[in-house]
């Protein structure tokens, strides 16, 4: 049975924890709003890019002059998985969800006899995947110092991916990230980057116009492909930031609630014990007085 | 209105401009290009340079873009810029930094083709710096 003093200390420490989780929740809420705004602001660019890409890809066709980034190497042996996770923990199952999803893919690909290479973006994913697949991880990128996710950060990742591709280090590249559905729901998603997959809906819509290309379509496409990859990675990173903040917000919210419950339980037993002690002292005094009579 | 069209300037981070304009000058790789309403559908690459936009009210706004891509239709024009800022907000230190980076790229280029590309980019930046 803990003493009164112990209980008092426990209550004080849980209260302090509750204050911290509450503050973290509020910070996450503010950051979430900013992240959502950033994700929304970036949307027009990626939409236009997708439309233009599918348009131009149609014009060029599958001919020999199509860039390798689009058609791939023609093989399907070596897979590169780019796993994007958050930099920090304390956000519920956010990181482990992405990591689990990636791990399933790794297992499947290995079972099919493919070679798998992993590139970790974000510290937490690296920490989780390192345990099982440390031999497969060829590269890691940290954004620990980054306050606001910018296009330059995405460029850094994309440049590494493309440099690896040009060296012939892999045939297929897939991007793993968490799609931001709402504050309480983030869905781990896999998206194939190289060779490019085209959005069929966008193609149908913009196919009507006959364009002049200046310079030639294939030259433009060559220039456009790396950009499109950068944009896709950028979008994934932004979605991830928004998702992380959403997950952190709900995790901290439930932590605050749990702390509240714990405080009420602890104060209940604190009060009970105090009452018992008072009663005990009263009995001692009264029985002492009785004995003197 | 036949003599105005919708112009959009988009950078990966945000939508900078979306409005009715009468005339836009864009720095295409094959030379400067003035886009007016009912332009033939064209797609073109863009080199670092200044985009000047003439709105319906006759005001001229200028933006600096660092490479990108333009999609021109008779009814509108969309400019996807790698990075874009209004001329008034341009940060000279940033520009100088970019030129320095470009110079380094020229120095470490592995093949002649890459070197030529880097050199071209560097020259375009220098021209741009002189213009603003």
How do the helices and strands line up, and which of them pair or pack?
The complex is a heterodimer of chains A (293) and B (132).
Chain A lengths: L3 H57 L7 H4 L6 E7 L9 H18 L3 E7 L1 H11 L3 E5 L9 H16 L5 E11 L2 E10 L5 H7 L5 E3 L2 H76 L1
Parallel strand pairs in A: 1-2, 1-4, 2-3
Antiparallel strand pairs in A: 4-5
Helix pairs in contact in A: 1-6, 1-7, 3-4, 5-7
Chain B lengths: L4 E6 L4 E14 L2 E6 L5 E5 L2 E7 L4 E6 L2 E6 L2 E6 L2 E3 L5 H17 L3 H20 L1
Parallel strand pairs in B: 1-8
Antiparallel strand pairs in B: 1-2, 2-3, 2-5, 4-7, 5-6, 6-9, 7-8
Organism (chain A): Hoeflea marina
Function (chain A): Produces ATP from ADP in the presence of a proton gradient across the membrane. The gamma chain is believed to be important in regulating ATPase activity and the flow of protons through the CF(0) complex.
InterPro entries (chain A): ATP_synth_F1_ATPase_gsu, ATP_synth_F1_gsu, ATP_synth_F1_gsu_CS
